[in-house]
Each structure stands twice: as C-alpha cells, then as structure tokens.
Amino acid sequence: MLQIESLRFRWPRTAADCIDIDRLDIGPGECVFLHGPSGSGKSTLLGLIAGVLVPDSGEVTLLGERLRTLAPAKRDAIRAARIGYIFQQFNLLPYLSVVENVLLPCRLSAHRAQKARSVSGTVRADAEALLSGMGLDASVWNRTATALSVGQQQRVAAARALIGAPELILADEPTSALDEDRRNAFVELMIGLCTRAGSALVFVSHDLRLATRFDRSIALAEVNRASRPEPDAGFAVHTRAGT
Amino acid sequence: MSALLSLAARSAWNRRFVLSLTVFSIALSTFLLVGIEQLRTSARASFSKSVSGTDLVVGARSNSVQLLLHAVFRIGEPTQGMGWASVEKLAANPLVAWVVPLSLGDSHRGFPVLGTTSGYFTHFRYGYREALAFSDGRPFDRLFDAVLGAEVANRLGYRTGDRITLSHGTGGAGFAEHGDKPFTVSGVLAPTGTPVDRSVHVSLEAIEALHLDWQGGAPIPGLSIPPEFVRKFDLQPRSVTALLVGLHSRASVFAMQRQIAEFRPEPLSAVLPGVALDQLWELVGAGESALIAISALVSVVSLAGLVAVVLAGLNERRRELAILRALGASPHHVLLLLAMEGAIVTLAGVLAGLAALVAGLAAGAPMLRAELGIDLPFVAPTTSQVLLASAILAAGFLASLAPALRAYRLSLADGLTPRI
C-alpha cells in the first residue's frame, strides 16, 4: 500500500540530509509502530508520506501513486481522501464544535464523505459513531473543541482521522501528552478502530512500551541512514491555533 | 469553496474582538466617504431645485454668488438694496415678461420674512418648473396678511387665521418686535423641499408699513403709528433686496443681462441662476476635494490596520493552518482562506458604515434641513456612492492578499510542523 524507495530529503539551508531511507513498505491495514529519539526525522518522514514535503530524490508511492511526480494540488487531494493525520496535540480548530471538527475531512473530500455515508447513512451519524467508539458520549459532541481535556481532544482527533475510513492513518506522537493509563487505552482504541475500518496505521512514538501492541515495530534510526538530530524538531513550538 | 468560506467566517468570528476594531475603522471610512458624497450631491440637488423658471436674478451690483445665495437661499450677508425706480423701469422693458421683487430683512422666530408681490405665487417655479401650491388658504390680500411656508406652519403649529408678529432683523429672539402690527395667516403653502418652505411671505407694502415709525433699525422714540392709520401713508417701497425676472424668450437672456449691466440710474447685477450655481460649485469644489482626499486617506489607514491585524495574528494561527494542511487543504486554500477573511471583514465594515450612514441621515436630516435648508432625500444610492463602496471592498480584498500571501508561504515552509 505504501512503498518508500531510496528516499532522500534535506531541509533548506541545512548541511546534511535529514532523511535517507533505502526501503520501507507498509501493507494494507498494517499497524506499524515507528520509534526513534527526538530529531531522528520522524515528523519529517510523516510529512513526506503525507505529501506535504517533497523528497529531493527517491519515491513515496501511496496506493500506486508516485507522490513526487504529481502536481501539488493532486498530492493535497490524495492526502484529503486517503490519509488521516493526528498531531501530538492541539489537533482541533478552536472555533468549531467537536462534531464539526470530526466532519472536517468530509467537507474537504467528497470521497471521504461518500465513504462515511456508506458506513453510517449520513456523515454526521458516522462522526457520532466514531466519537462513541472513542469513548466520547453525546454530552460533549456539541461542545467547543477547546473545552475538552487533552485526552478527550486526542480522541476527537483520532475520530477525525478515521472518518471516511482513509487507507492510511498517520499519528505523530499522539499520546505524548497523555498519562500512562490513558495512553494504553488510546492505543487500544486506535488499533481496534483502524482494524475495523481496514486502515493502515503508522504510529510514531518514542515510548517503546507501546510497541508490543502493534503488528510491527520499526526503529527509525535503523532504516534512516541520515539519522541525526533534526535541527528544528526539538524546537517545534505548538501554539494554540487561532485564538 | 463554500466549506472554506464558512471556515473563514467561523475563524474570523472566533477572533471577533480584535477584528471588530478593524471593522469599526473600515465602517468609519465608509461612513465618511459615502456620507460626504451624499452631502455633496444632496446639497447640489437641493440648491439646483430651489429656483427654476427664473431667467435672471437682479440686485445691486455685487458678487453674483452672494446675490443668488441671499436672494434665493436666504444665506449670507444681505446685499445692498436696489431702488424701486429701477424695478419699475425693468418691469417696463419689452423683453421682460414678469418681475417679482423680493425684500428681506425681518424674521419670525428664526424663519426669514420675505416681502414680495402676489405675482410671486404665480411666477415663481422650483424643481422641474413646478408652481407653488397652497395646502390651505390663499395668497395675501389684505395689508397684514401672511403666507407661511410648509415647514414654518408645521414646526410652529400655525394654521390659517392664526395671528403672528414679526421681528426686526434676522437675529431671531431678543430682537426688537413689530408687536404693534400683528399679521393674520391667510394661507399655507404645500411643501416644496426648497427655502420657500422656511419663509414667511408678506406683501412689500406690509414691510413698508412695519417700518414707517422706524429709523436706522430701531423704533423712533415717541412715534407710534397704529395699524389702522398706516394706509394713510404712501406704502410704495423705496427699495427692494432683489428682483426675479422672467423673459418672454430665453434667447434674449444675455441681451437683457447686458442691458442691466449697463443700466444708467444705478449699478446693478443680473445673474443667471444656473451660471451662479456653477460658480458656487467651483468655489466649494476645492473644499470638497480636500474632504474626499482626507476620507480616502482614512480608508487607506483603516485598510492598513486590517493588514496589520491579520498579519500580527498570523503567527498565532500557524497551528490552525497546519491542521488544515494535514486535512488536505492546499497552500492555495490557505491563501484563499485568508483573502476571504479580509473580504468578510471589509464587507462587514462597509455594511456597518452604510448602516450608520443611513441611520445618521435619518437622524440628521431634519437638523440639516432646518439649519441649512439642505434637503437630504432618503433615496437610493447614487452611482458614485455605489462605486465608492465597491472601491473600498475591492481595496480591502486586495490589501488582505498581503497577509494571505504570507500565510501561503508560511504554510509551504511549515508543512505539518509549524515553527516559530
């Protein structure tokens, strides 16, 4: 489903490659745990897979589409239709309600909307089913996203990534802001829902204790020959969007 | 596209407290620009409709604008009078169809008193050559009859048959009263939207009779002539303020104007109302341009404020933009989102400004009408007003492309990991 070949990427105005991966394949519906220390290029790799970053050479092939050769608009359309993305935190738009946040992918991709309808009848019903599946009951559905706890927000983000059953879920350290109990529960829920939807999952974390729950565990430092401290990743400052 | 538009609106609403300041300043500039345009066109329309069908306005030699302003609009300093002999000579001129003498100087509770002849009611025209009509009563007939303009009657609550007294001079209250010679309201004119509405019309003889026992602006001490005796005096006026002249043929207007300019017995001026109005607009045109330039500058400042506010907020919103990117939004979508936000803010500002203007006009129209005699009709916007409002909208949209382009570049550089 996802093939990476001879992938090289260097951030502008840096001296060395950040990503240099010879080969990495992920099968349909496969749940992969990707771990590595800060600065090993995890976020950069996810950016390349999502088609937001363009490699200097090599290929990322998603569902048969070679992302590098596509026009930027096409890459964006593929991301909207085929990929669900979860950030470390602050995933939600503060000016939308919980349900509206979950529905965002359906507004940006007709394909996702249509798939969501085929599962639950209406996109809203699908959003609500996913929120229930993530353990969020109806009392929070119409609240402002920022009124929720961090753990609840991450589960809303997971529901949003899963709506319309995209072929690939990319999760960038989604549990780093959660305490241990919630972390385990979150991972269980994610894997369960991905399996049910048939979505592949690439779950990035530096917390190796989570690895056992996944089909496969990959140490990025082993596949990325350019593994070295990423100049920016450690300083990535996450601000609240739009307040 | 509609998804994006609603996101832009929701996002802007989320930041409404900061953006409302921008909306306010755009509203203010819209109010100024469109309002000044409204005032300008209304003033011109109001002035232009005040006199029509009169070929020449004649008075003692003076500046033509000043003569017109005083004789027709009762604005500004009184010009020197012209002798009655001249009036009679001009009336006898073969080119002249009719003359209506005007005599100003007294007032009634702030409204100007116009001494004239009954010919005023038949010859005077306003708007598109419309004649004066009576809503009640008839022209003055007896010596101490008065005909009221619509607004005078309306504001002071007078009806036909009421008795009023006039004041000497135009200074309003506190001035010497002609209390010994009361007038009876013989008629009330229908509204015209011109200075006629604000005038009290009496006969020239009445003006003369009022001042029989006056000299130099004050009653002559020890001399009082009761109204029942004034008819024993010669009430033919010695001078009038101005003379409205109608010609048999418009073609002879320049010939007549030349004749009047060369009039022997006393130096006179003859003014074509349209030409004098044009001179007036030329005079005030510089001031108008300055006002419009200033309000245009206010618009520029307010749009600069819009750009500054959106740009300053952009760093705060890099996370928001990254979320949208992760969901499949392209950098073009981000650009469009920001541009739409600018358009929404500008539109809100323009609409608020127009609403304030409509409200302001509704509230201020009676005052303007009473104080300046300028009619602010509550009508559809003029082409230039629509153009001005659209220009602000277009400029707002263009200005917001600056932060939009920056957001575009930021989201290209940030990808999914915003850095600050």
> Can you write the helix and strand succession of chain A as a string?
EEEHEEHEHHHHEHEEH
Spans of chain B of at least 5 consecutive residues whose pLDDT stays below 50 are: none
Count of DSSP-assigned helices of chain B: 13
The structural class of chain A is: alpha/beta
**CATH superfamily annotation of chain A:** P-loop containing nucleotide triphosphate hydrolases
How confident is the prediction overall: mean pLDDT of chain B? 86
Could you name the CATH class of chain A?
A: Alpha Beta
Oligomerization category of the chains in this entry? heterodimer
Helix fraction of chain A by DSSP (H/I, runs of at least 4): 25-40%
Structural class of chain B: alpha+beta
Number of helices of chain A: 8
Q: What string gives the helices and strands of chain B in order?
A: HHEHEHEEHEEEEHEEEHEEEEHEHHHHH
Number of domains of chain A: 1
Mean pLDDT of chain A: 87
Distance between termini of chain A? 38 Å
Biggest protein-protein contact in the assembly? A-B, 41 and 32 residues
CATH architecture of chain A: 3-Layer(aba) Sandwich
Which percent bin holds the helix content of chain B? 40-55%
Q: Which stretches of chain A of 5+ consecutive residues score pLDDT under 50?
A: 230-243
